[in-house]
């Protein structure tokens, strides 16, 4: 190997000399194949020797490492030469998320650093950055994952996201000191959503616990709900349990794409969903518009039409439990049908952006979802070709 490649102060070892000779000659294809054939210890030696290489040789080396798909190695070589953004991207390609986050910080990209820290499990680092950036949705998400539900709920309350606030508060287990505050707030939220019966049942169950039987605030809220519902009963009387209004969890859980998610992953996905409402006649999905994500119907019905023009052919009418747009969670593309609200509609929406972040931060769930999606897609292709 030419000394001008690695430098006069240290020649390449015998095992790596053929590789460095290919690099010196600019024979990138040969260098890639040679590098791929090296043992792991020899590849580590190449990266150590790179610090003594000339700048042109290092540039060629980075190209070789990228083409050999040793993204972490390429990032390691580049770190000494600056280019923090490129280094961060390479570390992300390698799955080295914490190193990527540090590189994003050096590049001044705090938002991307925070996301990389979150994906890499360094939640406290991510939380500090999100808070500094006033990224409140992300702050609440990190607080939830750090099992600080009351703090997360307070952020969601500021954002007006009652659905996420309610789901976070539900994670406060009975027996914890925070349970009282969580129950009172959950009752208020459920009542405001028109689900006063569920709120009453929650209060009644909570008051059965010895620690809360004499709690004045819980008793007062229980009595208020009884009056609100027109029930002539005392706080110790169990109310008749009516079927609760659908909150969407069971509907979301029943979607085949999510059929293999664990309980915790399913709960996290449900928290990502956002309640939406449409008046009768509103456009729910516009044909030809970019896909907006998944929509799960909770109440009301929609008409699925072949187009937006008057007299367009009616393809289907869907009601509670039906879902549309799931393919747009994963694949880019335009909406293939026009959907109008036949009546007032209440639904849950999971946007493509929120879902992609969910996949980034739930590796096991992502693998299960993408495998099921691939299987369903393959079934459709086989059906079309049959």
From TrEMBL:
SUPFAM superfamilies on file: cAMP-binding domain-like (SSF51206)
Database matches in Gene3D superfamilies: Jelly Rolls (2.60.120.10)
Pfam family, one: cNMP_binding
An example molecular function term from Gene Ontology annotations: DNA-binding transcription factor activity
Any single Gene Ontology cellular-component annotation: cytosol
InterPro entries (alphabetical): cNMP-bd_dom, cNMP-bd_dom_sf, Env_Response_Regulators, RmlC-like_jellyroll
Every Cyclic nucleotide-binding domain range: 257-376
The protein's name in its UniProt record: Serine phosphatase RsbU, regulator of sigma subunit
Organism listed in the record: Pseudomyxococcus hansupus
């Amino acid at each position: 190997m030419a000394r001008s490649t690695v430098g006069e102060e240290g020649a390449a070892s015998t095992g790596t000399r053929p590789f460095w000779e290919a690099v010196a000659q600019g024979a990138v294809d040969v260098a890639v194949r040679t590098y791929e054939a090296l043992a792991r210890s020899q590849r580590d030696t190449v990266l150590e020797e790179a610090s003594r290489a000339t700048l042109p040789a290092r540039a060629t080396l980075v190209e070789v490492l990228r083409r050999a798909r040793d993204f972490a190695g390429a990032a390691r070589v580049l770190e000494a030469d600056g280019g923090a953004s490129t280094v961060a991207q390479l570390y992300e390609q390698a799955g080295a998320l914490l190193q990527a986050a540090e590189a994003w910080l050096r590049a001044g990209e705090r938002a991307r650093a925070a996301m990389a820290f979150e994906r890499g499990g360094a939640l406290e680092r991510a939380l500090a950055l999100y808070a500094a950036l006033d990224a409140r949705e992300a702050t609440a998400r990190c607080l939830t994952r750090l099992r600080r539900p009351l703090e997360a709920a307070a952020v969601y309350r500021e954002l007006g996201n009652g659905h996420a606030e309610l789901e976070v508060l539900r994670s406060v287990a009975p027996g914890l000191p925070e349970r009282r505050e969580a129950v009172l707030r959950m009752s208020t939220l459920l009542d405001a959503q028109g689900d006063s019966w569920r709120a009453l049942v929650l209060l009644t169950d909570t008051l059965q616990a010895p620690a809360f039987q004499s709690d004045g605030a819980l008793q007062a809220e229980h009595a208020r709900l009884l009056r609100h519902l027109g029930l002539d009963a005392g706080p110790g009387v169990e109310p008749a349990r009516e079927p609760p209004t659908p909150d969407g969890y069971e509907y979301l859980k029943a979607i085949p794409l999510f059929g293999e998610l664990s309980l915790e992953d399913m709960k996290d996905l449900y928290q990502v969903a956002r309640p939406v409402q449409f008046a009768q006649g509103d456009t729910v999905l516009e044909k030809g518009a970019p896909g907006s994500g998944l929509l799960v119907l909770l109440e009301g019905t929609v008409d699925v039409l072949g187009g937006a023009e008057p007299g367009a052919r009616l393809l289907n009418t869907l009601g509670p439990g039906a879902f549309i747009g799931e393919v747009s969670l994963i694949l880019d593309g335009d909406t293939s049908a026009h959907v109008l609200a036949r009546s007032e509609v209440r639904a849950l929406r999971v946007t493509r952006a929120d879902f992609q972040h969910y996949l980034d931060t739930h590796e096991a769930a992502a693998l299960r979802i993408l495998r099921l999606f691939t299987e369903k897609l393959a079934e459709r292709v086989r059906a079309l070709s049959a």
